[in-house]
């Protein structure tokens, strides 16, 4: 199978899964499930490319193992977070803004998310079709980046969850653990995760195409769907100490806080 045909299958997987989520939210009126399924869909796309590609088995097995483990951890975390919670404020606000056409527009938004998943997964395609397996040094370097990113993101998620579980922290900004050094360490490590496949694809044809994914992810989190939705004025006014926290703490890359 050609890489282009495999890309079509990856896009179809994501579109089918997110269409099912759209149908579900018609009944539940909670679109938050899309975040869970989107993460899982990216992992499934990697697995599909690993099965369809013609790279040496070692490269494809490593690709599937890294991507699926990342996807399952993230999807599990998001599923746990949304269980029993009301619809995410982003989607609730979108429903209000879209009015009577909200369901139709939501479908378009979900399918756009499927396209983003397929585009972000292009590094998986590059690795799945590379003519030679990565060297031991390259593979170990990729695993090291993956390990730091997944452990870092998981640690940040756990620290924030524990902070929010304590009643005395209601309405306060979390500035503990990794959150002392970055206002969004989870976003930083999520973006770093995509560097894994940049490293893994070193030496492959079209290696340069893998550079787009970490840049796109960082751009989305910094400018579109991440920080802007969390640090808008309305949300900031609800959190004690927010302005001081923003003043002294790096927005993205973990860095010692300003005095």
UniProtKB/TrEMBL annotation:
Annotated signal peptide: none
Keywords, sorted A to Z: Membrane, Transmembrane, Transmembrane helix
InterPro entries in alphabetical order: UstE-like (IPR010721)
Pfam short name (any one)? DUF1295
Q: Which GO terms describe its cellular component?
A: membrane
- Which parts of the chain span the membrane according to its record? 6-24, 31-51, 57-75, 104-130, 136-156, 187-208
Name listed for the protein in its UniProt record:
Uncharacterized protein
Organism in which the protein naturally occurs: Salinisphaera orenii MK-B5
Species lineage, top-down? Bacteria, Pseudomonadati, Pseudomonadota, Gammaproteobacteria, Salinisphaerales
């Amino acid at each position: 199978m050609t890489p282009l045909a495999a890309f079509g299958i990856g896009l179809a997987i994501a579109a089918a899964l997110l269409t099912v989520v759209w149908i579900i939210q018609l009944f539940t009126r909670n679109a938050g499930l899309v975040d869970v399924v989107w993460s899982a869909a990216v992992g499934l796309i990697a697995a599909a490319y690993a099965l369809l590609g013609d790279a040496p088995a070692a490269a494809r097995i490593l690709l599937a193992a890294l991507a699926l483990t990342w996807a399952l951890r993230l999807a599990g975390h998001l599923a746990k977070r949304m269980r029993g919670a009301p619809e995410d404020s982003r989607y609730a606000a979108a429903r209000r803004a879209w009015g009577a056409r909200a369901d139709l527009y939501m479908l378009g938004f979900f399918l756009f998310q499927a396209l983003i998943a397929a585009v972000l997964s292009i590094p998986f395609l590059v690795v799945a079709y590379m003519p030679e397996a990565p060297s031991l040094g390259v593979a170990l370097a990729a695993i090291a980046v993956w390990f730091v990113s997944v452990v870092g993101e998981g640690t940040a998620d756990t620290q924030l969850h524990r902070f929010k579980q304590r009643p005395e922290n209601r309405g306060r900004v979390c500035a503990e653990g990794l959150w002392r050094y970055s206002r969004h360490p989870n976003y930083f490590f999520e973006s770093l995760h995509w560097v894994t496949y940049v490293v893994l694809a070193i030496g492959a044809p079209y290696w340069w195409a893998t550079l787009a994914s970490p840049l796109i992810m960082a751009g989305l989190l910094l400018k579109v769907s991440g920080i802007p939705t969390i640090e808008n004025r309305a949300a900031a006014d609800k959190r004690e100490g927010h302005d001081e926290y923003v003043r002294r703490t790096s927005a993205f890359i973990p860095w010692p806080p300003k005095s």
